[in-house]
Each structure stands twice: as structure tokens, then as C-alpha cells.
Design brief:
With 158 residues, the chain is α+β, with helices and mostly antiparallel strands. It has 2 domains: 92 residues, Gcn5-related N-acetyltransferase (GNAT) (Aminopeptidase); 54 residues, no CATH class. Helices cover 43% and strands 20% of the residues.
Length: 158
């Protein structure tokens, strides 16, 4: 029917993800780079993220001078909703809203009451959903919108 995925520690998640999968990703992207203008365009747009990924791979400690180096560096929220998806046959039934409530419930067990996410500007369906679901815009960049959502852990009883 669908999925929701997130992390309570985005820095750790991205650092470990790229440390374990970097070579595989380079191979896959390299193959696609020469075949697809879309991949080339997307890589150009994400150059800042690529630089941050490389920094996270080679840094052992926290960033110096308070500079964030993970891919969620535009956000002040370290807890992140990474992905949410609903099968097309089940859309329009508020399943994505129930997924986010469930995610909030899981986070509340750790005392977390704020979560963030980012979405590409061209993903209008997602942007519409997040606004309807009560997410607030934290900032907008040339290609993404960063949202956050505050919730009361005591209200996460779903």
C-alpha cells in the first residue's frame, strides 16, 4: 500500500548511507550520466549536495565552526522524513496522512517533537500534500522547499 521512512539523526544516516553505498552509487550514476540528459541536469542542480556527500564521507568528526555538512544542511531540523509513498490505487484516502502520524508516534517515543523534510520544487503533488498535512515552510532554495512539522508527543496516539 505504501511506505514511510525517516531518521531521528539525519547527519548519521546520510554519513553512513554514503559510506556504505558510495561506490555503488558512483557506478550507477556514471552509467546513467552518459545516457541521460535528465541525469546530467539533475547532477548539475545537486552539485552542492554532492560536495556535502563527499565531505561527509571523509570527515570523521562533527563539522567545524558549526557548519553543517550533511545533505539536509539547509534545515535546522536534524530529524527527517526521508520518503513517503502511497501506491496509486490507494491515493486520496489519507493514507499518507496516517503514515506521517505513525512516524510522529515513533519519534515521540524518543521525545522528538519536530521533524523536517525537503521536496523538489517540481513535485507539486507532494508540496500540496505537505501543506494540507500541516507542514510549515522553513526555507526555499532554487530547487527545493524545506518543510518542518511540530507535533505534541502526547497527541501521537494513532
Amino acid at each position: 500500500m505504501g511506505l514511510v521512512a525517516g531518521t531521528a539523526d539525519a547527519r548519521f544516516h546520510y554519513r553512513e548511507f554514503y559510506r556504505h553505498n558510495f561506490i555503488k552509487l558512483v557506478i550507477i550514476v556514471s552509467k546513467c550520466f552518459f545516457k541521460s540528459t535528465l541525469v546530467r541536469r539533475e547532477l548539475r542542480q545537486r552539485f552542492t549536495y554532492i560536495r556535502m556527500v563527499l565531505e561527509s564521507l571523509f570527515s570523521r568528526n562533527r563539522p567545524k565552526n558549526g557548519v553543517k555538512t550533511d545533505v539536509s544542511s539547509r534545515s535546522t531540523v536534524s530529524c527527517r522524513l526521508l520518503s513517503i509513498a502511497v501506491h496509486p490505487d490507494y491515493r486520496g484516502q489519507n493514507i499518507a496522512g496516517e503514515f506521517t502520524k505513525y512516524f510522529f508516534k515513533l519519534l515521540s517515543r524518543d521525545g522528538i517533537s519536530r521533524v523536517g523534510l525537503s521536496v523538489h520544487l517540481d513535485n507539486m503533488d507532494a508540496i500540496k500534500f505537505y501543506k494540507k498535512d500541516g507542514w510549515k515552510i522553513e526555507c526555499v532554495t532554487h530547487n527545493s522547499i524545506y518543510f518542518f512539522h511540530d507535533f505534541n508527543p502526547e497527541d501521537s496516539t494513532t
